[in-house]
Amino acid sequence: MDKLFIVANLKSYKTETEARVWLEVFKKINENPQVFTQKEILICPSFTLLSLFSNFFKENNLPVKVGAQNVSPFEEGAYTGEVNAGQIKEFGDYVIIGHSERRSNFKESDDVLLNKVKISLEHGLTPVYCVQDKDTLVPENVSILAYEPIFAIGSGNPDTPENADEVAKSFVDKNKIVLYGGSVNPENIRSFTQKENIKGVLVGGASLDGQEFIKIIQNA
Ligand code: PGA
Questions:
Q1: Going from the N-terminus, what domains does the chain have, and what CATH number goes with each?
Q2: How far is the CA of 185 from the CAs of 17, 23, 182, in angstroms?
Q3: N or C: which terminus of the chain carries fewer CB neighbours within 10 A?
């Protein structure tokens, strides 16, 4: 993957009405279609918005990928409240797994995360697997990682590009593609993406505004 990978994690934000506003703003990315030759853009909205986003990108001929922020560790079945990999695959090709907010708020263990990865791969979804530091366990067959130190998430206090690059290198040495996430914004993005071992970013807060997200993409 030579293109820079720019991922928006919209977290548990946006009603359908708000998402439509975001999409109309984001559509202006098309005024600079050359960004798509250098950058792979992936948007991860809530489950309820997956179909809206994927249809919008198709209808507007935008080469933008869609992914989920979570996946059931089970196949389809009697698992009330869960959304399974086969259901996600109808709308998107990616899924974020192992985000620290899921590990801490929903007590997701390494075993559960391993099941999520396995089942996602079986359904043709590519996991973007979040690691919090060099020692985070990474399930086999994961190819894309996002290094997101907990202190940097939503804090306005990103890791230093030098440290992020060093952590990324430890995973690049194991043949992983590594993204950085944690307080990325239009001003600091370049300091990360110009590092040798960082192949893209995972953006939370700064992706919630369509215009700001376009700036991030342009500055990357
Ligand atoms: P942030 O979130 O950009 O708001 O720090 C990143 C993430 O949690 O994926």
A1: 4-219 (3.20.20.70)
A2: 25, 19, 9
A3: N
